[in-house]
Amino acid sequence: MLDSCKLFNVGRVTRTVGAFEALCEARISEAALLARHQGGDWGDVGASDRERNQLALRDGGRIFSAFRIATDRTVWVITDTDNTSTQLLLPCEHERLAATAHELRFRSLFDPGRGLAFPCDEVGHVDIDTLSDRARHNYLYARALAGREYATPAVLAVVGG
Fold first, then answer.
1. Does 147 fall in a domain?
2. 144-157 residue pLDDT tens
């Protein structure tokens, strides 16, 4: 059941390593951004995106928010068309993920709705040479703890923007 202040379900939440790092650096809660997103505060989006979001609430469709978390940093929050998953990512990551079309998702075994996602090919191969040092570290950590802290990773198609 939805809270009275939540207009829709976000489903399973994933975040890119870049979004996770940006939120940590800015000391902004992921939960706060999700609450704004679910409550109809779309952040720094244009009129056409606001209109599309309103239509999506009524008829179904992708819901998009953009939140400026620092003077030079914005986090996008995108809920897919059937409200089964929501992703937090940086704008610069969107093109890379869209071009990749797949991501390897590690779901936390102990904290529902949390996990890590990395760009990959259709069979789950992650090119670690293209990851930042921190993302590479997080990927190797998640891979090493699969089955103990993270579920076996799943390859999923990235929801288009």
1. yes
2. 999 999 999 998 87
